[in-house]
Amino acid sequence: MSRLFEGVGVALTTPFTNNEIDYEALEKHVDYLLNNNIQSIVVNGTTAENPTLSDEEKDEVLKAVVKQVDGRVPVIAGTGTNATKKSLEASLRAKEIGADAIMLITPYYNKTSQRGLVAHFTTIADAVGLPVVLYNVPSRTNMTIDVDTMVELAKNPFIVAIKDATNDFDYHNKLKERLDLSEFSLYSGNDDNVVRYFAEGGNGVISVVANAIPGDFQALYEKSKRGEAIDKDFEPISRLLNALSVDVNPIPIKALTAVEGFGNYEVRLPLVTLESSDRKQLEEAYAKYKAGEL
């Protein structure tokens, strides 16, 4: 099975206007991403505020993105929950809608054991028959995929990649040592570590900031793969990421997508928008970044 993508995938935001999904803004955003060299679009992930979306809304968003993308890049649907049956149902719907792959997060709250992870992911992967990206984000789930478990899971022909948001390079290097990387892809889930991640053999990143700066982030990856140093190029992006760290994702990035015209600056409860002073500072930093002054 060929690699899903190389370089930068975007963890797509969900635009709202008056607390309803703004499909016109969504289509505009997708076009912006495609016109700026994004390599994959992840729909209905954490950045999309997926816990606040109904199943019907998730399906409609996925339909809109699949239609807009029209095969130009892979569309990956976030379908994982902490219930295997619900995750499987969502994954089968995503396949029917036309997703190219699915992304499955580790179960949260009720969690499970490592044996449970193997059973959970394998059950879904075998039944759906689409490429699967596993999402390891212990900061949000208090659950991790151990290296031995990842090696076992990678034997499944449908489990082809990991989105690694551990920020643990010992973990990353152990995966590199023990997985067949001609068949398996390693994607960072952390925008701030990509200089090292790319240099140490990562195949790309599933990015939040790429919602606003997709072309710059992909250019960074391509330069790194040519063997060129990207530390200096990353410095202004790093400063923008520092500005985005003012609150939890996706609260800050949606301020920037609103600047670009992709929906109002709205998030759904329990998330709340930035205080006006913080929003002003973030927007000023973004303006400086775009002007080459950050």
Descriptive account of the structure:
By secondary structure, the protein is of the alpha/beta class. It has a single domain, classed as Aldolase class I (TIM Barrel). It is built from twelve helices and ten strands. The model has no long low-confidence stretch (mean pLDDT 97). It comes from Staphylococcus carnosus. This is 4-hydroxy-tetrahydrodipicolinate synthase. Belongs to the DapA family. Pyruvate binds at residues 47, 206.
CATH class: Alpha Beta
Distance between the termini: 41 Å
Given helix and strand content, the structural type is: alpha/beta
Strand content: 5-15%
Concise synopsis of the structure shown:
This protein has twelve helices and ten strands. With 294 residues, the chain is an alpha/beta fold.
Labels describing this entry:
single chain, 294 residues, alpha/beta, TIM Barrel, eight-stranded parallel barrel, two-stranded antiparallel sheet, 12 helices, 46% helix, cytoplasm
